[in-house]
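Page 42, continued from yesterday. The earlier attempt failed because a stray header line got pasted into the input along with the sequence. Redoing it now with the clean sequence only.
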Amino acid sequence: MILGLLIALASALATNVAFLLKYRGAVRAEPIDARHLLRSATALFRSKWFAVGWLVAVLAWALHVGALALAPLSIVQAVLSGGLVFLAVLAERFFDLRLGRWQWFGVTITAAGLAIIGLTGSGAAQPQHSSLAGLIAVEAAVFAVGAALLAISALRRIRHRVEGLLLGLAAGALFGVSDIAIKYLTHAEGALHGLVSPWTATALLAGAIAFYASARSLQIGPGVEVIALTSVAANLVAIMGGIVVFDEPIGSGPLAIGARFLGFCLVIAGAALMPVQHAEKRAPDTAPAFATPAS
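This time it went through. Structure tokens are written below.
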């Protein structure tokens, strides 16, 4: 399991480098148009920053899959949540995005929460089975929540800043759906190690929707805040999937369970303190919202 955690740590670093590179490219690309998704994707990849960020994201995804095959889902996602620390440092040092005292405090308590989660979950055994009913229930519920967030973000009364945050949350939730499906496939049997499966299609569909939602959220939302919320949403959904679908233990004994619950609360509180109000200053975006056709 130690190797899996090290790979997860490398994936966390690569994921946040990829997000920041894609953010730099997305704000320079044409706005996402839900009626012309292929053209929108082409415009994104014409930006060298976005293209490089996407390639780094592919590497991060490969590392993520490797970590999921070697360690419990909830523990892998807890390590990936530590990417918030990488995000803060990289954003200030290399991307000229400044964080205030509250944002750094949020990073600190997030790191503390993740340390608690890691310590209380270190004795968790690799899950030997999975629940198909739990998988269907979790993925259906998260798909419904993601669809609701996308629908709310498309309302004309929603400001672009709020729309970006809602799209970031929706993208994170759908990334979490994809993570759960991939974890399920790593333990599947049958043709091509389970790749010929409806859950492969589920992972691809969730990933495709999340791709566009995430790109649009980076175009119109505050970069660091959007990335942080996307990461936290993805990790919390995947951790929930680890517990419900793969029967991974919440903790051993009341003390460990209470400590792990506190750790989750610290992670959520840390994400809530991440907003950056003065870091990005660019012209208002008047482009049509994601999933909202232009008039």
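Notes: The first helix runs from residue 2 to 26.
Reminder to self: strip header lines before submitting.
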